[in-house]
Amino acid sequence: MNTNALNNICYGLFVLTAADGTKQNGCIINTVTQVTSAPVKIAITVNKSNYTTDLILKTGVFNVSVIDESADFSLFKSFGFSSGRDTDKFSDFKDFKVAENGINYICKNTNAYLSAKVVDKIDVGTHYMFIAEVTDAQVLSDVPSASYSYYHNNIKPKPKQPEQSEKTRWVCVICGYVYEGDELPDDYICPICKHPASDFRKM
Ligand code: FE
Q1: CATH 2.20.28.10 spans which residues of the chain?
Q2: Per-residue pLDDT for 137 more than 80?
């Protein structure tokens, strides 16, 4: 079996948002699929460890904002690499509006958003798949949606070209940040995505 085949599946990228009272949170997912058209239902799959998952389990409602090709890495930094359990992801993020369901959606670098209400939940191990009926949907722009491969080729920071240097280089496999030094400290934390030394590979 060649699991690289899985890399050839085409995915989009989305900010999944949910709220509990005044606490709003969001995370990046690449798994949103329309599953039926009458009524309109979508399936999303999200890691059980995400705080956004907790909010959806509690409230049964969420929004999906469709990331478009105008997005830069800052959007992924805002929602992708930290947990809403520890931080308020909307404290420094202003490019949102509130949908009819009271949940924030992202209004910049996105071309549409959907609001949905969970009608079924499937435990798939590390993740839950939520089946949800779409309760509202709006188009925000005509910029093409960002695919996962577009993200890797155009948005994710690329490791800098090696310069004339004897120093060993270590690349963060999550965000592409490059650390230079003879040894990568065990307690090193990536300054971009906050992932630990175990997510760095020697170049
Ligand atoms: Fe990183």
Answers
A1: 159-203
A2: yes
